[in-house]
Write a structure and sequence with these properties.
By secondary structure, this protein is an all-beta fold. The chain is 3% helix and 41% strand. This is DUF11 domain-containing protein.
């Protein structure tokens, strides 16, 4: 017989998820290291985000495995029953990289009998636990950390390192045993249907071999909560903490009691109870530990067991996760337990109909026992009141596109599909912050009537304030009738907001998806249970057919025309509140900003997704300086995951543009060569023009003088906003418009006889240059400079200010002539055209004699 001095100290950990208000109020010989508290998830999807009770059609499941075993399981020799032996060794999955120290896997299997396309995971918590020393040090001597673990998701080929969100690092009282936790819901939701697969966890902080008679172990477990509309209603909740029972022998037995409340067992029929536990340091060969539940409304206890343990050895290194599987799949998990099992509640002997609380008792005789979590689920009481919220506006339904200022009509039909009447009934419709209340009326043709009233916590005018709620108080009880009988009906209308601030500055445009929802509240006439249940937005079709208790979403679309009339946003997509050019201003008055948002809006200086952001609530004015400061606004009725962004900024322009002087000729188009500085362009500044260096009012348009003269203007970088304007240093530049040269017009015609000679002279002014040009009669739009070779036989030659014709012939008949005059500024002007005409004249027949038909013209 083994004496107590040689019995290894057995330390048991329970970790899982508890669906109730979990209170440890009687513990004998217990050191409550970490008080138990409710585990909620900020990463769970709505409506389960931060909820204390997962009230849903669905269930929970668990997977996990150990990472430390007696190595004789896979090598030579006979493995021992206890983890107090020198053969304890890391297990490592085949194919894992050399950097991995220990690893194991488990496969999450979808429950049989239910279509997986109907299943939606809503929460996943990962726990890991172990022992590698006898201290509270975070890092073991082998370098493994208690707050770190590696996870490989289904379909992935690599591990990702995770850091615990919660950890108890152990101490000498708990013999160094630790537990760690992280919420991985967000990681699993991204997998979709692939979440049902194999998970691997590596590098749990433990060590091989033997250090004392307590033993070493390491393992991990996951709790998965999911919903499926084809399953029963259940209540599931998550709690954790860390409490230790210390005992030194069989004559010093220790125990604790856990009182739990908050669940609501179904009001009729058999109540199914499911529990899940994870534990550390439970051994096959050491007995004396137990876990019990109190029988309904009595002082008697039912000692619990499952298919792989005994009532006097509850924690015995077994992993019971059927239908899920694990690798390696050893029966003895050497100090690590996971158990997921149903309690025998025949005739509701443990939990009765409508019961809301129970107690658990745990204890050990002679060992050390540490508990930090439990999973508990019961069939839930859910009143079957359905209030279907639907759109009656033609061509609009859940997911439809709507536009600012659209008026949408809705209708809700009230049905009681349960087995008891509902007292003190009321219906609330939560109006999204992007919609205004228009009207609501109760249909008087149905039995349940009453009044419908709009209210808002900070306003009495729905035309000015979006959001709020419509409350319909029933004037009588909601009786039991036919399943599809309509007991009451409300019609109401909402108008989509046209507020640019609300519609354009939300994170990820989340506010543009406007979810209309609400709830029905009341009390069961027979059970006396209070309830509230969300509105139904519709019914799924096909194999997953069920009521959908969810938002009726309408997607607001912003057209380009609408956005063109909205204030510009910062590069981060935030509404900008600016103070211009006055360094003495250190704040923007609260009302200046708050009046741009619905009444009741709360402002924060920390992003709402950050833990503890609530402490950054802005209660006074908004500080402002030359560095843009980001703030966040949560509107009444909005969740913290959907918020608006705004910035405050003192704008002082210190940059200046580049610009050059312009010199052009009269009638020549031009563009001012001004450009923003790089810093100004990055800051979103614009160019503004002034007619004096001290003017505060910029010109309405870019300067564009057209008459000859010299003009001086000024250009600056700046910005004009709703609350003022700010401009930087003015930079001067000139626009010089030079006059065109004076041009004397030519004669309309220059007539010559055939074979005649002639000279046409032009009087050129000082500083001018002359170019003779010609155009053929067949193409009078094309002008060319007259060259000596333009016509054969030197018949038409330019000679400075003279045009010389020698022996005129038909080749120059009807040729058009003009002069191009260029002044000393390079400006060009042209004369009107003159036409050369060769007339039929009586001429001397002897060609060697001078022609008497020639004519010299001097202009």
């Amino acid at each position: 017989m083994r004496t107590i001095e040689f019995i290894k100290h057995k330390v048991v950990f329970i970790f899982s998820i508890l669906l109730l208000l979990f209170v440890v109020n009687k513990v004998y010989g217990q050191s409550n290291k970490v008080p138990f508290s409710l585990r909620t998830s900020i990463k769970a999807p709505e409506p389960y985000k931060n909820q204390e009770i997962y009230n849903l059609r669905g269930d929970f499941t668990m997977i996990g495995n150990a990472n430390l075993f007696d190595k004789r399981l896979w090598s030579s020799g006979s493995p021992g029953d206890s983890n107090v032996n020198t053969n304890m060794a890391f297990y490592k999955l085949t194919g894992d990289p050399s950097s991995i120290r220990n690893s194991s896997s488990a496969t999450l299997v979808h429950p049989a009998g239910f279509d997986s396309s109907c299943t939606k995971i809503v929460y996943v918590g990962l726990y890991w636990s172990g022992r590698g020393d006898n201290t509270n040090s975070n890092v073991l001597s082998n370098g493994l950390r208690k707050d770190k673990v590696k996870l490989r998701l289904p379909g992935s080929t690599s591990y990702q390192e995770l850091t615990a969100e919660w950890i108890y690092r152990g101490d000498s009282d708990s013999r160094g045993i630790y537990s760690s936790y992280i919420d991985i819901t967000d990681k699993i939701l991204t997998l979709g249907s692939n979440a049902w697969g194999t998970y691997s966890v590596a590098d749990i902080a433990t060590r091989p071999g033997e250090i004392d008679n307590t033993g070493l172990y390491g393992g991990w477990g996951m709790v998965v909560i999911y919903e499926n509309p084809l399953m029963k209603w259940r209540d599931i909740t998550v709690y954790d903490g860390f409490s230790v029972l210390n005992a030194s022998g069989n004559d010093n037995a220790q125990s604790g009691i856990l009182n739990v409340s908050g669940f609501r067992a179904a009001q009729s029929g058999n109540i199914n109870i499911k529990m899940g536990m994870m534990a550390g340091e439970g051994d096959q060969d050491i007995t004396g530990d137990y876990f019990a539940i109190k029988k309904r409304v009595s002082t008697n206890w039912e000692t619990l067991r499952h298919g792989t343990n005994q009532t006097n050895n509850f924690f015995n290194s077994s992993v019971l996760i059927t239908p899920n599987t694990k690798n390696p799949n050893y029966l003895n998990n050497y100090g690590f337990d996971i158990a997921m099992f149903d309690l025998d509640n025949t005739n509701n002997r443990l939990i009765n109909n409508s019961q809301t609380s129970t107690s658990f008792k745990y204890g050990t005789a002679g060992d050390t026992f540490a508990i930090y979590n439990i999973v508990f689920a019961v069939d839930a009481y859910v009143p079957l009141v359905e209030a279907e919220n639907k759109v009656t506006t033609p061509n609009i339904s859940h997911g439809s596109e709507v536009f600012p200022e659209d008026i949408i009509d809705f209708q809700i039909d009230l049905k009681n599909k349960g087995s008891e009447a509902i007292l003190d009934g009321a219906l609330e419709i939560s109006i999204p912050s992007t919609m205004h209340f228009v009207s609501a009326s109760i249909d008087q043709s149905f039995p349940v009537k009453g009044t419908a009233v709009w209210s808002h916590p900070a306003s009495t005018n729905p035309n000015l304030t979006a959001g709020g709620k419509i409350t319909w108080v029933f004037d009588r009880k909601l009786t039991v009738g036919e399943l599809e009988e309509i007991h009451g009906r409300i019609n109401y209308s909402l108008q989509v907001s046209n507020d640019c601030t609300l519609l354009t500055s939300s994170v990820s445009d989340c506010i543009l998806t406007s979810g209309v929802n609400g709830k029905v509240t009341g009390k069961g006439e027979l059970s006396g249970h209070d309830f509230d249940i969300s509105l139904v937005r519709g019914y799924t079709q096909g194999v997953c057919s069920a009521a959908q208790y969810d938002d009726l979403n309408l997607n607001i679309t912003l057209t380009n025309d609408f956005l063109a009339n909205c204030p510009s946003l910062s590069p981060e997509g935030a509404r900008e509140f600016k103070v211009y050019c006055d360094p003495s201003i250190t704040f923007i008055e609260r009302n200046t900003i708050a009046n741009e948002y619905p009444k009741g809006t709360k402002f924060y200086s920390q992003e709402p997704s950050m833990p503890g952001y609530e402490t950054s609530l802005v209660t006074g004015d908004f500080p402002v300086d030359t560095q843009s400061t980001m703030y966040y606004a949560i509107l009444p009725g909005m969740t913290e995951s959907c918020y608006l962004r705004l910035t405050t900024f003192l704008e002082i322009v210190t940059t200046q543009p580049t610009v050059s002087d312009i010199e052009v000729c009269y009638h020549t188009p031009y563009t001012i060569p001004a450009a923003l500085s790089n810093q100004g362009a990055q800051a979103g500044l614009e160019l503004y023009y002034f007619d004096s260096p001290t003017s505060e009012l910029p010109l309405a348009s870019v300067p564009n003088p057209t008459e000859p003269g010299v003009y001086t203007y000024y250009v600056a970088e700046g910005n004009i906003g709703a609350n003022g304007s700010c401009f930087g240093q003015r930079v001067a530049f000139t626009i010089t418009i030079n006059e065109l040269p004076l041009v004397d017009d030519l004669s309309d015609f220059w007539e010559l006889c055939p074979n005649a000679d002639g000279v046409y002279s032009y009087n050129l002014l000082p500083g001018q240059t002359l170019v003779w040009q010609y155009a053929l009669d067949s193409n009078q739009l094309v002008w060319s400079d007259l060259q000596p070779t333009s016509f054969n036989g030197d018949v038409l030659l330019p000679q400075d200010t003279q045009l010389v014709i020698s022996h005129a012939n038909s080749s120059i008949d009807k040729v058009h002539i003009r002069v191009k005059i260029i002044n000393d500024k390079g400006c060009v002007n042209y004369s009107y055209k003159m036409q050369i005409s060769i007339k039929a004249c009586n001429a001397i027949s002897n060609p060697t004699l001078p022609s008497k038909a020639g004519k010299s013209i001097s202009n």
